[in-house]
Specification:
By secondary structure, the protein is an all-alpha fold. Helix content is about 80%, strand content about 0%. It is globular.
């Protein structure tokens, strides 16, 4: 009988690694104090909300004088929330009707006030990756500023998209007159899909650039896509759960909208940190699979 031919070991399939990483991410989320970091992100998001709103309105005001374009961007931003919170929309209307001018130090103060949520996200991502060497105080703040600038660029991108949509609606308005109801529904769903795709892209960039360690770009996409899918499901469920704000008013009174806002940001932060944990686990499993394959080949040689 001829000796059996040695076969090269087959590496673990990507779907198997993704499933295993997704399962490990659940345990890591709890064991690595991910829920505490999510609460920190929600807290700093509330503190940074109005400085970021003022900066956003200032940027939009510098980019365009068309009120309809600014309103379209604001409506697009509200797609990331389960409902239009009155305390946010009311303050936005107040900022728009009575614009405030800022000097140099005023803008610096707004930037510093808005950095809180970005610094909290940076700390949570690096903690999930268990980085050995943390950034210095200045570098940590610099990363937050870069994230804020990127958020501003996303806002400008939203302005461009809103302008293109308005232009298309103006051009196609005569042809769309008397169109079936499903066409209007399709345009709304299309906007939701764009919002989800934009979220996935931003999350992938956060997963790649924020950790103070080496990350392969191809390793961030499974976690980023999973975050987008989970966030979309959570948005649908939370919108149904928080639809009747009167029930919340019975318990929390006048601050019910703030409580709902904090709870939604907390849920979103938990999903984000879970995605970080899943991405870190997936990257480690990929490295382990590669090392195991190479070791097996050396032993069989």
């Amino acid at each position: 009988m001829s000796p059996r031919r040695k076969q090269d070991p087959k590496p673990a399939g990507p779907l198997r690694l993704i499933g295993l990483a997704a399962w490990r991410g659940v345990g890591e989320l709890y064991d690595s104090e991910g829920l505490t970091h999510a609460a920190s992100i929600a807290y700093y998001a509330l503190l940074s909300l109005f400085p970021l709103m003022l900066l956003g309105i200032y940027v939009l005001g510098e980019m365009t004088s068309d009120t309809a374009d600014r309103d379209a961007v604001v409506r697009f931003v509200f797609r990331y929330f389960p409902r239009q919170f009155a305390f946010i929309s009311g303050q936005l209307e107040a900022f728009q009707t009575a614009p405030v001018t800022f000097g140099f130090w005023g803008i610096v103060a707004l930037i510093w006030g808005g950095l809180g949520v970005f610094n909290a996200i940076t700390s949570a991502v690096n903690h999930a990756w268990a980085v050995e060497k943390k950034r210095s105080f200045l570098k940590h703040r610099l990363v937050g500023i870069v994230m804020m600038i990127c958020a501003g660029l996303v806002l400008i991108l939203g302005l461009v998209i809103a302008s293109m949509v308005r232009l298309a609606e103006t051009r196609l308005a005569p042809a769309m007159a008397g169109s079936p109801w499903w066409i209007d529904n399709f345009s709304g769903e299309f906007g939701s899909y764009i919002a989800t795709a934009l979220l996935i892209g931003c999350v992938a960039l956060v997963f790649y650039f924020i950790p103070n360690t080496t990350v392969r770009f191809k390793d961030v996409w499974p976690g980023a896509i999973l975050v987008g899918v989970l966030w979309r499901i959570a948005l649908w469920l939370f919108s149904w759960y928080a639809a009747d704000l009167a029930t919340w008013n019975v318990i929390h009174g006048s601050i019910a909208a703030v409580v709902v806002f904090l709870l939604w940001i907390y849920v979103s932060a938990v999903i984000l940190i879970y995605g970080v944990e899943m991405t870190a686990s997936y990257a480690r499993l990929q490295e382990a699979a590669i090392r195991h394959t190479q070791l097996s080949k050396e032993l069989q040689a």
